């Protein structure tokens, strides 16, 4: 995964007045031509700030997202699942490493970013504030949360910032395996015993509302982000991504014989768009602002891990330590 | 060739790899830095994969399939050494255990590459290649943290003192030791331990840590004959939680 569902606040474009108009015009022309912006190139402050925010949020989502699935590694049923899930969650942590590096090229250190995560200053994907009660919940995440993230990441990979796009290309290649793994797990639940089918149906009932929230608030109510679209920071509208996800995955869920807990869900054949019960955006707002079922637990785990590992990081900084060339 | 001796050998090695692999995997998301999360996860995958390969050999020798062997036995039926089942504790303990254990395992698999039992000898060549990275990782970190700050040195020393008697439990001899040696299947725990002590000394000498005299230590035995600490059964209960919902189901 696990990126996606980035939250953008209303953008204040006042700072643009202070930018050099010639350089700004040149920058915008380059983006329009489809060129990538590289770390040493000139860029407006607002662009830098928004990209750091977005890439950082994505990186945080990877390490926080590793927690609900990670707790199922030790309980995965059988060698095949145990080995696959370990490899998958390890990939996600690797994605965080790639993404923090991409964000660092814009001038914010990994330490600062992680510090902002554990103090609650920066966000991560809202969906990980919900609990994974059963094995089937972890299968839902591996299949459908990852699927949602791919929709978002494939769009973002066509964005304008070179290091982020290159990281996303690598990430998406690995994600395609996660998707296969998740789908495979769900097929086994769907074609298994009554108990197994019921486990997944219950997971689907729990996770559908947060999944609908995943792509962010409806376009009707979301903050104006025109300048971010023009700069190819934000590549697709929330509703377009949600629609694309529904288009690709609702038929697959139905095909397995499960019921999606939304009686209004159907595709309008005239418009080609999906219709659904309007997600509860008040709930979304409440959870993203810290009052979800797992916000405190997730951050606490991260905080404890940071605290327990501090002496190791301190020891690496000592001038007496010998430099060891990384293996790769 | 007597299968009982061979099976006993295979079970203890496989159980070691499975249980330590499981412990290593508990570091996922919890490491002191992202790079260590990833490293411990890689080692966990290798170890669990290796245990699967060893259980598969056992399956060919007439034992049950690997999933049944791994996910349905209780603690008394496991032959892993107690060192591998101890909780992860702080990073210094996990690192020290990893160093002691993998130093022994790479020697063990090196010895097994010339085993008269061909399926094991062939597997050992592959496993040895994987373990090279595990020992490279352990040695690098022991040398780094064993020479860094006052705190890192003190922590590692404490963990060394705590883990060492358990580490000697790796070499608890099997009732079939003489037979395995005579049949050329495995050179035996004593030979392994002597070699291990030399390699451990070689690395520790490059740090500010010190090893107590070997003769002053009391090895913690029991694991090889199914007498475990209180930590193993809860680990197994967790590992089989989903599997046991319906052992007949396919997951």
Give structural notes.
The complex is a heterodimer of chains A (about 325) and B (about 250). With about 325 residues, chain A is mainly alpha-helical. In chain A, about 60% of the residues lie in helices and about 0% in strands. In chain A, a hairpin with a 6-residue loop joins strand 1 and strand 2 (about 275). In chain A, helix 2 (about 45-70) packs antiparallel against helix 3 (about 80-105) and helix 5 crosses helix 9. The model of chain A has no long low-confidence stretch (mean pLDDT about 90). Chain B has about 250 residues and is an all-alpha fold. Chain B has one domain (about 5-245): Ferritin, core subunit, four-helix bundle (Ferritin, Up-down Bundle). In chain B, helix 2 (about 35-60) packs across helix 3 and helix 5 (about 90-110) crosses helix 9. The longest helix of chain B has 28 residues, at about 120-145. The model of chain B has no long low-confidence stretch (mean pLDDT about 95). Chains A and B meet through helix 2, helix 3, helix 6 and helix 11 of A and helix 2, helix 3, helix 6 and helix 7 of B.
